[in-house]
């Protein structure tokens, strides 16, 4: 399998998971992975949950997180969900090159949906000169999210050790798209077959995206969950989740919806291509990753 792109269909829509690269989260810059991803998990249950995923608490020294973006060609619209993590690390910023390999030029994208304002989701908005990379795109973002990053709130609510990285990226990647921007403040259709889903918590205006064609559903979870264990333990939040209580409520609502609809789900930090089915298990859920061959 080509590990950079993965094409699949949702009804009539041609979809593709596109890698922007990876980033390694490890001490000293970050807490050990288990503490970073599951900050409030009780020790013994954490150890057990990790073992079920072939991870050992003691030996899990680094989390190599994929950064995944999604394209959807509806026939009428060429949509990109998130623009990757350009500038964040040595192995990021591969989105454009991977799109070009698949015959997609930046000019072809007419709709760019930004799920939230973290640097690994908006990093490809602008080039080194600060110009918008997708000149023909209508950018769509949740209003609360835009307001958060453009207010004093971000300054006061963000953790000291990540604040600088987050604010630097937001200041570089958000103002240049302002003329192309449309803000949504309710669940609505963005283009036919693709809808905005409110999913706050990870950030104040974090958005999931519902994609449906001919009775088939894909729910883009973005960072509603960062690791498959979050489906099993929706109350275990990550250090980068801004509002833990809201994160859990959002996860429960969205994971229940995806399971009921038997939707395919994609999360942008799961192992590439980030796709699977969200299956109800007891009081929570479990990810059944799709089988990729080739
Ligand atoms: Zn992210």
Which sequence of strands runs across the widest sheet?
1-2-3-4-5-6-7
Unreliable stretches: none
Write down the secondary-structure element order. EEHHEEHEHEHHHEEEEEHHEEE
DSSP summary: helix tally: 9
The multimeric state of the shown protein is: single chain
How much of the sequence is in beta strands? 25-35%
| Structural class category | alpha/beta
Give the rounded overall mean pLDDT.
Answer: 96
Question: What is the number of strand segments?
Answer: 14
Radius of gyration: 18 Å
- Span between termini: 5 Å
Globally, the shape reads globular
* Helix amount: 10-25%
Bound molecules: zinc ion
Taking the sheet with the most strands, its summary is:
7 strands, mixed
What does this molecule look like?
Helix content is 25%, strand content 29%. It has helices at 33-37, 43-51, 95-101, 119-122, 143-149, 152-157, 160-173, 229-232, 244-260; strands spanning 5-10, 13-25, 63-73, 78-81, 111-113, 138-142, 181-184, 189-191, 194-198, 207-213, 216-222, 264-267, 275-281, 284-289. Strand 9 and strand 10 (207-213) form a beta hairpin.
């Amino acid at each position: 399998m080509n590990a950079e792109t993965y094409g699949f269909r949702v009804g009539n829509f041609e979809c593709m998971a596109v890698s922007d690269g990876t980033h390694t989260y490890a001490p000293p810059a970050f807490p050990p992975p288990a503490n970073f991803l599951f900050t409030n998990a009780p020790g013994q249950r954490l150890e057990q949950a990790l073992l079920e995923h072939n991870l050992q608490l003691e030996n899990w020294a680094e989390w190599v997180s994929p950064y995944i973006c999604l394209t959807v060609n509806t026939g009428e619209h060429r949509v990109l969900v998130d623009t990757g993590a350009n500038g964040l690390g040595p192995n990021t910023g591969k989105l454009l090159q991977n799109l070009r390999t698949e015959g997609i030029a930046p000019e072809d994208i007419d709709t760019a949906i930004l799920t939230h304002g973290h640097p690994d989701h908006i990093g490809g908005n602008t080039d080194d000169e600060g110009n918008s990379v997708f000149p023909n795109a209508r950018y769509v973002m949740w209003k609360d999210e835009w307001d958060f990053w453009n207010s004093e709130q971000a300054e006061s609510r963000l953790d000291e050790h990540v604040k600088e990285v987050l604010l630097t990226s937001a200041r570089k990647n958000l103002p240049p798209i302002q003329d192309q921007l449309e803000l949504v403040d309710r669940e609505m259709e963005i283009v036919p077959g693709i809808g905005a889903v409110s999913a706050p918590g990870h950030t104040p205006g974090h958005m999931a995206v519902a994609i449906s064609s001919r009775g088939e559903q894909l729910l883009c979870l973005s960072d509603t969950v960062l690791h498959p264990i979050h489906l099993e333990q929706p109350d275990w939040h990550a250090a980068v989740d801004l509002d833990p209580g809201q994160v859990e409520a959002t996860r429960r609502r969205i994971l229940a919806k995806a399971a009921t609809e038997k939707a395919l789900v994609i999360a942008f930090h799961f192992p590439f291509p980030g796709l699977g089915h969200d299956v109800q298990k007891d009081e929570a859920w479990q990810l059944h990753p799709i089988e990729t061959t080739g």
